[in-house]
Amino acid sequence: PFDVLVVGGGPSGAAAAVYAARKGIRTGIAAERFGGQVLDTMAIENFISVPYTEGPQFGSALENHVRQYGVDIMNTQRAAKLVPAATENGLVEIELESGASLLARTVILSTGARWRSMNVPGEDTYRNKGVTYCPHCDGPLFKGKRVAVIGGGNSGVEAAIDLAGIVEHVTLVEFDSVLRADDVLQRKLRSLPNADILLSTLTTEVLGDGNKVTGLTYQDRTTDASHTLDIEGVFVQIGLLPNTEWLAGSVELSDRGEIAIDDRGQTSVPGVFAAGDCTTVPYKQIVIAAGAGATAALSAFDRLIRTGVP
Ligand code: FAD
């Protein structure tokens, strides 16, 4: 069996694998797609000490770093089920979709998350060409431009407030007739001179010139009339879905489906730790995920010492 088995090969999983392997214990990492979300990213400008890199380059740097240690890398393997240990210091089992089964003294879950998309024409075409899901990552690219934020929950309204300080103008677009964000955020947004709010509005298409976003069309749900908004950026903020469906019933999840962890990365199951975007950690960013992966690996190692393994 593995001493530490990491499930997920994004920044959090890679950091966990490196930290575990450096303790000289038997470490494995199983990932559906090594690299994770960064593979879908263009510019990365906020990983501290690296002023600029690109997603695919960062993704292969993660893999190269893990390969420098004797980590058993199982790429293109999707975990389908976690079976907690039968006894207090027993082995945790991870069943893979391929039918194989892996046993480990400790497991680190780092399966990340995915952004919910609008599913309208143009959204995929202009992804990373004006359509974005991360205001912390891409806000500065739209300095002085006009943008829209889709979604009136806390993350959408926070994004609109944040962007209003950078861009020329921001329009918040909400499907419902009311915003769901906290009152204090709504008041703040409404007080800003360069922010508008469209309620009862359905985004119908992202428009572009072939290279980048030029606008979006929407339908006013009270009149059914169609309108066009001239903008250069669309920030989609309608939900981040953790990749944890396969854990329901085995590990405690929050009401948003995030793996509940404490400040050491411990989950509700003994010997099972978690890190990164799949957890209840408040902010979803590469540097945060990597730090959480290190935390989870050190916690797993601490458990191994206490249960007399290494
Ligand atoms: P992920 O990167 O999501 O990795 C999850 C891993 O788990 C993957 O290997 C996946 O294949 C695997 N996996 C999932 N389910 C299973 C399963 N059942 N079995 C096995 N493996 C599984 N953050 C920044 O800090 N700066 C940026 O500039 C930035 N730009 C971004 C741009 C885009 C387009 C996107 C989508 C995100 C961006 N982010 C950025 C966010 C950042 O990518 C994430 O916060 C970070 O990747 C989270 O790392 P993670 O390891 O927790 O999860």
UniProtKB/TrEMBL annotation:
Residues 2-293 form the FAD/NAD(P)-binding domain. Keywords: Disulfide bond, FAD, Flavoprotein, NAD, NADP, Oxidoreductase, Redox-active center. GO terms for cellular component: cytosol; protein-containing complex. It catalyses: [thioredoxin]-dithiol + NADP(+) = [thioredoxin]-disulfide + NADPH + H(+). FAD binds at residues 3-18, 267-277. GO terms for biological process: response to reactive oxygen species. Its EC number is 1.8.1.-. The keyword Ribonucleoprotein does not apply. Its cofactor is FAD. NAD(+) binds at residues 146-160. Disulfide bonds join C134-C137. Binds 1 FAD per subunit. It is an enzyme of class 1 (oxidoreductase). Belongs to the class-II pyridine nucleotide-disulfide oxidoreductase family. Homodimer. This is Alkyl hydroperoxide reductase subunit F. It comes from Rhodococcus opacus (Nocardia opaca).
